[in-house]
Amino acid sequence: MDQFERAAAAAGFVLDDSQRAAAARLIRLSEELTARRRLFGGKPARGLYVWGPVGRGKSWLTGVFFEALAVKQKRRVHFHEFFREFHAVYAKYRKDRNACDRAVAELLSDCRVLFFDEFHVHDPGDAMMMGRVITSLVDQKVTLVTTSNYPPAGLLPNPLYHHMFEPTIKLLQASLDVLEVAGPQDYRAQGTAAPRSEFERGRYLSPGTEQQLRDAGLEPPTDGERQKVDLGGRYVGARAIRDRLVWFDFADLCEERTSTIDYLGLADRFDTWVLAGLPRLTAGHRDAAQRFANLVDVLCDRDARLYLAGDAPLAECLQGEALPIDVNRTASRLRLLPGSAG
Fold it and tell me: Where are the alpha helices (DSSP H) in the chain?
Protein backbone atom coordinates (compact mmCIF):
# COMPACT_ATOMS: atom_id res chain seq x y z
CA MET A 1 0.00 0.00 0.00
CA ASP A 2 2.94 2.32 0.68
CA GLN A 3 3.99 1.87 -2.93
CA PHE A 4 0.54 2.92 -4.19
CA GLU A 5 0.55 5.94 -1.86
CA ARG A 6 4.01 7.04 -2.98
CA ALA A 7 3.00 6.69 -6.62
CA ALA A 8 -0.15 8.75 -5.97
CA ALA A 9 1.86 11.47 -4.27
CA ALA A 10 4.26 11.58 -7.22
CA ALA A 11 1.24 11.96 -9.55
CA GLY A 12 -0.12 14.80 -7.42
CA PHE A 13 -3.08 13.28 -5.58
CA VAL A 14 -4.03 11.22 -2.51
CA LEU A 15 -5.78 7.87 -2.73
CA ASP A 16 -9.48 8.06 -1.90
CA ASP A 17 -11.35 5.26 -0.12
CA SER A 18 -12.49 3.54 -3.32
CA GLN A 19 -9.01 3.64 -4.83
CA ARG A 20 -7.50 2.32 -1.60
CA ALA A 21 -9.93 -0.62 -1.60
CA ALA A 22 -9.01 -1.37 -5.22
CA ALA A 23 -5.30 -1.18 -4.37
CA ALA A 24 -5.82 -3.66 -1.51
CA ARG A 25 -7.47 -6.14 -3.89
CA LEU A 26 -4.68 -5.71 -6.43
CA ILE A 27 -2.10 -6.33 -3.69
CA ARG A 28 -3.89 -9.57 -2.81
CA LEU A 29 -3.84 -10.65 -6.46
CA SER A 30 -0.11 -9.90 -6.62
CA GLU A 31 0.44 -12.14 -3.60
CA GLU A 32 -1.61 -14.92 -5.20
CA LEU A 33 0.28 -14.67 -8.48
CA THR A 34 3.70 -14.76 -6.84
CA ALA A 35 2.93 -17.55 -4.35
CA ARG A 36 5.29 -20.48 -4.87
CA ARG A 37 2.50 -22.93 -5.65
CA ARG A 38 1.49 -20.89 -8.67
CA LEU A 39 4.83 -21.61 -10.27
CA PHE A 40 4.16 -25.33 -10.40
CA GLY A 41 0.82 -25.63 -12.17
CA GLY A 42 -2.59 -25.80 -10.57
CA LYS A 43 -5.46 -23.41 -10.96
CA PRO A 44 -4.54 -19.90 -12.12
CA ALA A 45 -5.18 -16.95 -9.84
CA ARG A 46 -8.61 -15.43 -10.29
CA GLY A 47 -8.44 -12.28 -12.40
CA LEU A 48 -10.00 -8.85 -11.91
CA TYR A 49 -12.45 -6.75 -13.87
CA VAL A 50 -11.90 -3.16 -12.67
CA TRP A 51 -14.58 -0.70 -13.78
CA GLY A 52 -15.88 2.75 -12.92
CA PRO A 53 -16.47 6.26 -14.29
CA VAL A 54 -13.90 8.06 -16.39
CA GLY A 55 -10.89 9.60 -14.66
CA ARG A 56 -11.15 7.45 -11.53
CA GLY A 57 -7.60 6.13 -11.83
CA LYS A 58 -8.43 2.59 -12.99
CA SER A 59 -5.61 2.44 -15.55
CA TRP A 60 -3.27 4.17 -13.11
CA LEU A 61 -4.01 1.68 -10.29
CA THR A 62 -3.61 -1.36 -12.49
CA GLY A 63 -0.49 0.17 -14.04
CA VAL A 64 1.17 0.52 -10.62
CA PHE A 65 0.17 -3.08 -9.88
CA PHE A 66 1.52 -4.32 -13.21
CA GLU A 67 4.89 -2.56 -12.93
CA ALA A 68 5.46 -3.90 -9.43
CA LEU A 69 4.25 -7.44 -10.16
CA ALA A 70 7.17 -9.85 -9.72
CA VAL A 71 6.08 -12.15 -12.55
CA LYS A 72 8.09 -12.27 -15.78
CA GLN A 73 5.35 -13.87 -17.87
CA LYS A 74 3.11 -10.81 -17.95
CA ARG A 75 1.87 -8.51 -20.66
CA ARG A 76 -0.01 -5.21 -20.68
CA VAL A 77 -1.75 -4.16 -23.90
CA HIS A 78 -4.48 -1.73 -24.87
CA PHE A 79 -7.68 -3.28 -26.17
CA HIS A 80 -7.23 -1.72 -29.63
CA GLU A 81 -3.61 -2.83 -29.89
CA PHE A 82 -4.41 -6.43 -28.98
CA PHE A 83 -7.12 -6.68 -31.61
CA ARG A 84 -4.80 -5.33 -34.31
CA GLU A 85 -2.23 -8.00 -33.44
CA PHE A 86 -4.88 -10.68 -33.03
CA HIS A 87 -6.45 -10.13 -36.45
CA ALA A 88 -3.03 -10.24 -38.13
CA VAL A 89 -2.19 -13.59 -36.51
CA TYR A 90 -5.72 -14.99 -36.83
CA ALA A 91 -5.53 -14.53 -40.60
CA LYS A 92 -2.76 -17.17 -40.75
CA TYR A 93 -5.03 -19.81 -39.17
CA ARG A 94 -8.35 -18.70 -40.63
CA LYS A 95 -9.08 -22.12 -42.20
CA ASP A 96 -8.26 -24.00 -39.00
CA ARG A 97 -11.25 -24.88 -36.80
CA ASN A 98 -9.09 -23.88 -33.78
CA ALA A 99 -7.91 -20.65 -35.37
CA CYS A 100 -8.76 -18.48 -32.36
CA ASP A 101 -6.97 -20.75 -29.87
CA ARG A 102 -3.89 -20.96 -32.08
CA ALA A 103 -3.79 -17.18 -32.56
CA VAL A 104 -4.11 -16.52 -28.81
CA ALA A 105 -1.44 -19.12 -28.03
CA GLU A 106 0.96 -17.55 -30.54
CA LEU A 107 0.35 -14.01 -29.33
CA LEU A 108 0.70 -14.77 -25.64
CA SER A 109 3.20 -17.63 -25.73
CA ASP A 110 3.98 -18.39 -22.07
CA CYS A 111 2.10 -15.35 -20.70
CA ARG A 112 0.49 -16.03 -17.30
CA VAL A 113 -0.97 -12.57 -16.63
CA LEU A 114 -2.63 -10.45 -19.32
CA PHE A 115 -3.75 -6.90 -18.64
CA PHE A 116 -6.31 -5.36 -21.06
CA ASP A 117 -6.78 -1.61 -20.70
CA GLU A 118 -10.05 0.12 -21.69
CA PHE A 119 -12.15 -2.99 -22.37
CA HIS A 120 -15.30 -2.05 -24.28
CA VAL A 121 -17.47 -3.68 -26.93
CA HIS A 122 -19.92 -1.82 -29.16
CA ASP A 123 -19.67 -3.64 -32.49
CA PRO A 124 -21.49 -7.01 -32.63
CA GLY A 125 -18.85 -8.53 -34.93
CA ASP A 126 -16.06 -7.54 -32.55
CA ALA A 127 -18.17 -8.87 -29.67
CA MET A 128 -18.40 -12.36 -31.16
CA MET A 129 -14.66 -12.48 -31.77
CA MET A 130 -13.95 -11.12 -28.29
CA GLY A 131 -16.11 -13.85 -26.80
CA ARG A 132 -13.96 -16.48 -28.50
CA VAL A 133 -10.78 -14.78 -27.28
CA ILE A 134 -12.00 -14.67 -23.65
CA THR A 135 -12.97 -18.35 -23.84
CA SER A 136 -9.52 -19.19 -25.17
CA LEU A 137 -7.80 -17.19 -22.40
CA VAL A 138 -9.78 -19.08 -19.75
CA ASP A 139 -9.02 -22.44 -21.38
CA GLN A 140 -5.31 -21.60 -21.53
CA LYS A 141 -5.30 -20.61 -17.84
CA VAL A 142 -4.25 -17.01 -18.37
CA THR A 143 -5.10 -14.68 -15.49
CA LEU A 144 -6.85 -11.65 -16.95
CA VAL A 145 -6.90 -8.15 -15.45
CA THR A 146 -8.92 -5.55 -17.32
CA THR A 147 -10.25 -2.02 -16.88
CA SER A 148 -13.49 -0.64 -18.30
CA ASN A 149 -15.96 2.21 -17.99
CA TYR A 150 -18.73 -0.39 -18.00
CA PRO A 151 -19.70 -3.21 -15.66
CA PRO A 152 -19.68 -6.59 -17.44
CA ALA A 153 -23.46 -6.46 -17.86
CA GLY A 154 -23.11 -3.08 -19.59
CA LEU A 155 -20.91 -4.34 -22.43
CA LEU A 156 -22.40 -4.27 -25.95
CA PRO A 157 -25.23 -2.08 -24.59
CA ASN A 158 -27.23 -1.86 -27.82
CA PRO A 159 -30.43 -3.80 -26.97
CA LEU A 160 -30.55 -5.22 -30.51
CA TYR A 161 -27.30 -7.11 -29.97
CA HIS A 162 -26.75 -7.34 -26.21
CA HIS A 163 -28.13 -10.89 -25.97
CA MET A 164 -25.38 -12.07 -28.33
CA PHE A 165 -22.74 -11.15 -25.75
CA GLU A 166 -24.50 -12.50 -22.68
CA PRO A 167 -22.61 -15.86 -22.68
CA THR A 168 -19.30 -13.95 -22.63
CA ILE A 169 -20.59 -11.67 -19.86
CA LYS A 170 -21.41 -14.75 -17.78
CA LEU A 171 -17.94 -16.17 -18.48
CA LEU A 172 -16.30 -12.90 -17.37
CA GLN A 173 -18.35 -12.87 -14.17
CA ALA A 174 -17.50 -16.52 -13.49
CA SER A 175 -13.76 -16.09 -14.14
CA LEU A 176 -13.00 -12.63 -12.74
CA ASP A 177 -13.81 -10.70 -9.58
CA VAL A 178 -15.70 -7.53 -10.53
CA LEU A 179 -14.28 -4.50 -8.73
CA GLU A 180 -15.89 -1.05 -8.97
CA VAL A 181 -13.77 2.06 -8.44
CA ALA A 182 -16.66 4.38 -7.62
CA GLY A 183 -16.77 8.08 -6.89
CA PRO A 184 -17.57 11.40 -8.59
CA GLN A 185 -14.02 12.79 -8.83
CA ASP A 186 -12.48 12.82 -12.33
CA TYR A 187 -8.78 13.03 -11.46
CA ARG A 188 -7.87 13.97 -15.02
CA ALA A 189 -9.85 17.17 -14.53
CA GLN A 190 -7.76 18.27 -11.55
CA GLY A 191 -4.81 19.44 -13.60
CA THR A 192 -1.24 19.65 -12.38
CA ALA A 193 1.43 22.33 -12.32
CA ALA A 194 3.44 20.49 -14.98
CA PRO A 195 2.49 18.01 -17.71
CA ARG A 196 2.76 14.37 -16.64
CA SER A 197 2.80 12.94 -20.16
CA GLU A 198 3.63 13.89 -23.72
CA PHE A 199 -0.09 13.95 -24.56
CA GLU A 200 -0.56 16.72 -21.99
CA ARG A 201 2.14 18.80 -23.70
CA GLY A 202 -0.22 19.37 -26.62
CA ARG A 203 -2.91 22.04 -26.68
CA TYR A 204 -6.53 22.77 -27.54
CA LEU A 205 -6.88 25.84 -29.77
CA SER A 206 -10.13 27.62 -30.55
CA PRO A 207 -10.88 28.76 -33.17
CA GLY A 208 -7.42 27.70 -34.36
CA THR A 209 -6.25 30.89 -36.07
CA GLU A 210 -2.84 31.03 -37.71
CA GLN A 211 -1.62 33.28 -34.89
CA GLN A 212 -2.82 30.77 -32.25
CA LEU A 213 -0.98 28.02 -34.10
CA ARG A 214 2.21 30.07 -34.25
CA ASP A 215 1.92 30.94 -30.56
CA ALA A 216 1.82 27.17 -29.91
CA GLY A 217 5.02 26.73 -31.93
CA LEU A 218 3.29 25.48 -35.08
CA GLU A 219 3.91 27.07 -38.47
CA PRO A 220 0.73 26.71 -40.58
CA PRO A 221 1.27 24.44 -43.58
CA THR A 222 1.50 25.71 -47.14
CA ASP A 223 -0.44 24.29 -50.07
CA GLY A 224 2.78 22.74 -51.33
CA GLU A 225 3.07 20.57 -48.21
CA ARG A 226 -0.19 18.70 -48.82
CA GLN A 227 0.33 15.01 -49.61
CA LYS A 228 -1.29 11.59 -49.45
CA VAL A 229 -0.50 9.17 -46.63
CA ASP A 230 -0.53 5.45 -47.43
CA LEU A 231 -2.82 3.37 -45.19
CA GLY A 232 -1.88 0.04 -46.73
CA GLY A 233 -3.23 0.53 -50.24
CA ARG A 234 -5.70 3.26 -49.30
CA TYR A 235 -4.77 6.91 -48.89
CA VAL A 236 -5.75 9.82 -46.69
CA GLY A 237 -4.86 13.44 -47.30
CA ALA A 238 -2.50 15.22 -44.90
CA ARG A 239 -1.87 18.96 -44.89
CA ALA A 240 1.76 18.43 -43.93
CA ILE A 241 4.31 15.84 -42.80
CA ARG A 242 7.37 17.16 -41.00
CA ASP A 243 9.56 14.36 -39.78
CA ARG A 244 7.57 12.80 -36.88
CA LEU A 245 4.79 15.41 -37.06
CA VAL A 246 1.65 14.91 -39.15
CA TRP A 247 -1.04 17.54 -39.77
CA PHE A 248 -4.60 16.51 -40.68
CA ASP A 249 -7.92 18.22 -41.18
CA PHE A 250 -10.79 16.63 -39.24
CA ALA A 251 -12.76 16.17 -42.47
CA ASP A 252 -9.93 14.28 -44.19
CA LEU A 253 -9.14 11.96 -41.29
CA CYS A 254 -12.43 11.39 -39.48
CA GLU A 255 -15.12 11.87 -42.11
CA GLU A 256 -13.48 9.37 -44.45
CA ARG A 257 -13.69 5.59 -43.94
CA THR A 258 -10.68 5.33 -41.67
CA SER A 259 -10.43 2.79 -38.84
CA THR A 260 -8.79 2.36 -35.47
CA ILE A 261 -6.25 0.06 -37.12
CA ASP A 262 -5.37 2.93 -39.48
CA TYR A 263 -4.81 5.24 -36.50
CA LEU A 264 -2.60 2.67 -34.80
CA GLY A 265 -0.49 2.39 -37.95
CA LEU A 266 -0.18 6.16 -38.21
CA ALA A 267 0.77 6.37 -34.54
CA ASP A 268 3.65 3.98 -35.30
CA ARG A 269 5.01 6.62 -37.69
CA PHE A 270 4.12 9.93 -36.04
CA ASP A 271 4.37 11.02 -32.40
CA THR A 272 3.19 14.63 -32.84
CA TRP A 273 -0.23 15.31 -34.35
CA VAL A 274 -2.13 18.41 -35.40
CA LEU A 275 -5.85 17.90 -36.06
CA ALA A 276 -7.57 21.04 -37.32
CA GLY A 277 -11.21 21.84 -37.91
CA LEU A 278 -12.99 19.89 -35.15
CA PRO A 279 -16.60 20.97 -35.71
CA ARG A 280 -19.54 21.20 -33.38
CA LEU A 281 -20.59 17.57 -33.65
CA THR A 282 -24.13 17.13 -34.91
CA ALA A 283 -26.25 14.25 -36.18
CA GLY A 284 -24.52 14.62 -39.54
CA HIS A 285 -21.16 13.74 -37.93
CA ARG A 286 -22.27 10.54 -36.15
CA ASP A 287 -19.72 8.17 -37.74
CA ALA A 288 -17.00 10.83 -37.75
CA ALA A 289 -17.56 11.42 -34.03
CA GLN A 290 -16.97 7.74 -33.27
CA ARG A 291 -13.80 7.74 -35.36
CA PHE A 292 -12.65 10.85 -33.52
CA ALA A 293 -13.25 9.14 -30.16
CA ASN A 294 -11.22 6.14 -31.34
CA LEU A 295 -8.42 8.44 -32.51
CA VAL A 296 -8.24 10.20 -29.13
CA ASP A 297 -8.04 6.78 -27.42
CA VAL A 298 -5.11 5.77 -29.62
CA LEU A 299 -3.18 9.03 -29.24
CA CYS A 300 -3.67 9.19 -25.47
CA ASP A 301 -2.67 5.56 -24.98
CA ARG A 302 0.35 5.96 -27.27
CA ASP A 303 1.24 9.16 -25.39
CA ALA A 304 1.48 11.16 -28.61
CA ARG A 305 1.41 14.94 -28.46
CA LEU A 306 -1.87 16.33 -29.85
CA TYR A 307 -2.61 19.87 -30.97
CA LEU A 308 -6.37 19.99 -31.55
CA ALA A 309 -7.97 23.02 -33.20
CA GLY A 310 -11.73 23.32 -32.82
CA ASP A 311 -14.33 25.61 -34.33
CA ALA A 312 -15.59 26.39 -30.81
CA PRO A 313 -14.60 25.75 -27.18
CA LEU A 314 -14.25 22.04 -26.50
CA ALA A 315 -17.41 21.80 -24.41
CA GLU A 316 -19.45 23.18 -27.32
CA CYS A 317 -17.90 20.80 -29.83
CA LEU A 318 -18.69 17.80 -27.64
CA GLN A 319 -22.34 18.43 -26.81
CA GLY A 320 -24.11 17.55 -30.05
CA GLU A 321 -26.50 14.71 -30.84
CA ALA A 322 -23.80 12.72 -32.67
CA LEU A 323 -21.67 11.98 -29.65
CA PRO A 324 -20.49 8.37 -29.31
CA ILE A 325 -21.41 6.26 -26.31
CA ASP A 326 -17.90 6.72 -24.87
CA VAL A 327 -17.93 10.51 -25.12
CA ASN A 328 -17.30 10.92 -21.38
CA ARG A 329 -13.96 9.14 -21.76
CA THR A 330 -13.10 11.23 -24.82
CA ALA A 331 -13.95 14.48 -23.04
CA SER A 332 -12.03 13.43 -19.93
CA ARG A 333 -8.92 12.71 -21.94
CA LEU A 334 -9.15 15.92 -23.96
CA ARG A 335 -9.43 17.93 -20.74
CA LEU A 336 -5.79 17.00 -20.19
CA LEU A 337 -4.90 19.44 -23.01
CA PRO A 338 -4.08 23.01 -21.95
CA GLY A 339 -6.69 25.37 -23.37
CA SER A 340 -9.48 22.78 -23.29
CA ALA A 341 -11.30 24.51 -20.44
CA GLY A 342 -11.64 27.80 -22.24
Answer: 2-11, 17-34, 58-68, 79-90, 99-108, 124-139, 162-175, 210-215, 250-254, 260-269, 286-301, 314-317, 327-334
